[in-house]
Structures are given as C-alpha cells and as structure tokens.
Amino acid sequence: MATDAPAATGVSTDERAFWERIKEPAVYVRLISLVVVIGGWELMGQTGNIDPVTFSYPSAICVAFWDLIASGQMTAAAYESSQILVAGLLIAIPLGIVLGILMGRFQVFEYAVDTYVFALYATPVVALAFPIAMVLGVDFVGKTTIVVFFAIMPIIVNVYHGVRNVDLSLLEVTRSFCSTESQRWRDLIFPSVVPYLVAGLGLACGRALVGMVVAEFLMSISGLGALSQDYIADLELDKGLAPVVLLMVVGIALTKVVNICETKFSSWRVRQES
Amino acid sequence: MSSSDNGTNPTLRLQGIGKWFGSLHVLDDIDIDVKTQEILTVLGPSGCGKTTLLRIVNGLILCERGEVSFKGEVVDGPRPEMAMVFQNFGLFPWKRLDQNIGYALRIQGKEKGEIDRLVSHYTELVGLGGFEANYPSQLSGGMQQRAGLARALAAQPDVLLMDEPFGALDALTRETLQEELLRINEAEPKAMIFITHSIDEALLLGDRVLVMTPRPGRIRFQFETGFGRGRDLEEIRGGKRFQALRHYLWEAMRNPEEEPEPIPDLVIE
C-alpha cells in the first residue's frame, strides 16, 4: 500500500488507478467479451457438448499445456521452432530493407525486379514449399527459406512505398539548402521510412510464424508444428491445440515488441497525438 | 563585377528569363535586378509563375531562356548564399525546433559550438526562445514559420527568397510577422525577393513592388514604394500614399488586360 494514499478512503492510488482503467470501454468491453466467449466455450466443454476427439475446451487445453511443459516436449519443440523463426527473421529484415530501399530509390533496379517482387507478393508462398524443398532440402536451410519468403514481402513492399512517398516539398527543402545525397538520407529518407518499416515488421512477424508452422508441417516434421500435428493425428485435441496457444501468445508478444520499438523511434509522432 | 558594396550594385540579376512546362509557357522575358539589401516584392495573380520564378532564382529548376546571376556568377543550382522560406514552412516533423533551425548549418558542416551559438541567436531573434525542444506539430502555424525564417537566417545568406511565407497564416499572425520581418531586416539587412498575392503585404514590405501579368508571367510594371527604412506599418497603413497606391494596384489587378494609368505622383508624408 502506498503511504501517501488518502487515509479517509483507505484505497491506495494504485488500486484507484486500476478501477479508473476498468471504467474505460476499451477495457471493460474486452473483459466482458472474453468472459462470455471463453466462459461459454468452457461451459460447452464442461456440459459434455464438445467431443474431445474432434475439439477441446479451455481448461483441458490449459492442463494439456502444463503437461507438455512438465514433460519437456513443449520447451524442446519451441526451441527447435525458434531457431528457424529467428534465423528467418534475421535474414528477411535486413534483406527486405535493402531491397525495398534499392527499389524505391533506383528506378533501374525497380524496373529490373518489380515484376518478380509483386508476383511473389501475390503468390501463396505455401505453393513454393515443394520446389524449395527440392532445391534446398527439407531441413534447416529449406525451412528457414520458407520463413524468409513469408516474412520478407511486407518488408520490401512497405519500405519501397516509404521511400517512394517521401514528402516532395521536404525533398525540395533539402535541395534548396544544398544537402548532399548522404545528408538527405539521414535527414529525410530514413526518418520518412521508419513508420512504413515498423508497419511492415509487424506484418512480417505474423507471417514468419505462419511460415514457420507451414515449414514444419510440409517439410521434415519438427518443432511446435510437429508437436501439434502428432497429437491431433492421435486424436488428443487438447494437447494438439496447446502449441497453437503458445503460437498465439508469441504472435501477440512480437507485435507488442514492434509497437514498443515504434514508440521509441518516432517520439515526435507520439507527442503529436498527446 | 565590382567588389565595392555601396548598396547599388545588383546582388541578383535576372536576364531574359523564359520558362516552359512542356508546351505551357509560364514565364516570358523577365529582367530583374535586385540591389544589395533591397526588398523586392513580387505581386501577381495565382498561376502567374511567381513561385516558379523564385525556384529558378534558387537554382531548384532550370529555365529554357535567359540566366540568373548572383554577384556576377551564373546560378546553375542551389547555393548557400541564398536561402528560401517556404510557403508550407518545410520543417522536418521529426526534428526538434533547434534541430530544424540549425539544419542549414549542419548541412554546411559548421562546428557544433558555432551551430549552437547561431541557433540560439536566431531562435531569440524570431521570438522562439524557450520552444527549442518542441516538435513542429506542437507549434502554431505562425511559430512554425518563425522557425522557417530562423532556419533561413541562420544560414547567413546574402539573399532571402520568400515564397508567400505568410500566405498560410491567419490575418493577425500575418500582420505580426510582417512587422517582425521588417524589424529583423533592420537588424540584419539582406537582399530579399518576397512573393505575395496580397496587395497590402507587397506595399508594406517592399522597397520596390513588381507586378506580373497572368500566364505567361511577364513584368507588367514596377515602382518604388518610397516608404523608407524604419517604417512604422501602422502609420503607413493610415497614410494617403498607401491608400492611393493600394487603390491603384487594386484597379490594376482587377483589369489585367488594360494598360494601367501612370502611377499618381505622391509626396511622401
């Protein structure tokens, strides 16, 4: 309890802030929605309306989740999966930024590659899994490549648009004050691209997770994708869905990390809103 | 060119400027001399190529005919001796005010101590002291344009190019900034080309007013305002000479086809 809390009410400031937040529609509407949906789902399970062979319900998934962690299967699978996820993102992010910038800034490069980039952007990458496996194998290299293909597209396209949408009147300002090309990148082009890049990274993280699971399903079976698929095949749906829950949590966490980075890199934008 | 600077040699000379955008004839045969420390206001209807003319002077775009020379050198690109103040301020939204004001100095590769000194001097001069850490979006339009002016002044140019700088501001802010601009120019006189479509502004600020025709932009006529330096804008506004010139310009702008009457001979009050 905070000592400076008003004695008359006996409520700490932390506690008051909590109740203040609860009053916001964004908070209480979400809470009610969660209680109704998750609670309803659970109730269906508890009353025997869900066949555990075809589907499961929250408390059963929680128990299965705990069992998989206790047995060490979940952690081992997550470790395996994270390797291709991280490797894929570490390749996709810098490569996507460089390609996006080159496309946005150099017309010759844009004309040379834009057909392939936009064709790939429109292609379901799942369809490429087989040729990739044929060329690069079904193990680490092949799977990482799938993740790269999934993640890189929104980065390239967003950075490209960011570079192309640089404010022309500010471009004129840099020219008027005799800026060199490298100064122009520092003062104008990089800062303009940041919001586009951040949006692209958010999409890329989500797609990388999808790519990871697709790779684990379609190529040599491994990691969280394999764990889920094995148990679903054994008709143990509660254990089959537990890795899916973990993927959801990781997806949300990655999005949060991207948002925090955005706030750090564009403080001028945040201040503008306040 | 003579290096002696007695205030009469042209700092800027425009000779026979002609400009086309494709088949559209924008500017035709423009000859202008701007003397050292002279304020030239250019008045014309929308679309007469005023801004295009200023961009040619700045070296941002090239002209098909004629040439601009600065102290005898042909202008073929932007140069640090000229600084532009933009109609839409042109501040970088992600830079703080002091970073925006010091922008030209960093581009010129000045030392940090020198930059800090000049930035704080010009921030004070335009009346923005205390707002150094703010981002442009946190400031009013008037304050943003003060910053735009400070950025141009900090570059310590010989020529200030003003592209309808107060056009986007409300009437009251506009009048305040007109007075401030004259005050600042008294303190640190420079040659200035000031583009405007406001008759009052052209008269109040200009040593000389140049009126342009609609497209293609040509020089229609020009005259000295004769209000002198250290002018009191409030006093000028109330005076007969201002009223007469204002009426004269108003008639001339309203009848762009007619040859204007000679400017009435008016004594300076």
Q: Can you count the helices of chain B?
A: 9
The string of secondary-structure elements of chain B, in order, is EEEHEEEHHHHEHEHEEHH
CATH class of the largest domain in chain A: Mainly Alpha
CATH topology of the largest domain in chain B: Rossmann fold
Query: Which shape of chain A, going by the Cα principal axes?
Result: flat
Oligomeric state of shown chains: heterodimer
CATH class of the largest domain in chain B: Alpha Beta
Reported for the largest beta sheet of chain B, the result is:
6 strands, mixed
Named CATH architecture of the largest domain in chain A: Orthogonal Bundle
How many domains would you count in the coordinates of chain A?
2
Structural class call of chain B reads alpha/beta
Q: What's the overall average pLDDT of chain A, rounded?
A: 86
The CATH topology of the largest domain in chain A turns out to be MetI-like fold
Our measurement of the CA-to-CA distance between the termini of chain A, rounded to an integer number of angstroms, reads: 30 Å
**How far apart are the first and last residues' alpha carbons of chain B, in Å?**
37 Å
Radius of gyration of chain B: 19 Å
Query: Which blocks of ≥5 consecutive residues of chain B have pLDDT under 50?
Result: 1-7
Report what the structure shows.
The complex is a heterodimer of chains A (274) and B (269). Helices cover 81% and strands 0% of the residues of chain A. Chain A has 274 residues and is mainly alpha-helical. Chain A has two domains: 13-65, no CATH class; 72-273, MetI-like fold (Orthogonal Bundle). The two termini of chain A are 30 Å apart. In chain B, helix 4 (112-125) packs across helix 5. A six-stranded mixed β-sheet of chain B has the order 6-7-8-3-9-10, with helices on both faces. In chain B, strands 2-1-4-5 form a four-stranded antiparallel β-sheet, with helices on one face. Chain B is globular. Chain B has two domains: 11-81 and 172-262, 3-Layer(aba) Sandwich (Rossmann fold), CATH 3.40.50; 88-156, no CATH class. Helices cover 34% and strands 23% of the residues of chain B. Chain B has helices spanning 50-58, 97-101, 103-107, 112-125, 141-154, 171-187, 199-205, 233-238, 240-254; strands spanning 10-21, 24-35, 39-43, 65-70, 73-74, 82-85, 159-163, 191-196, 208-212, 219-224. At the A-B interface, helix 8, helix 9 and helix 12 of A face helix 3 of B.
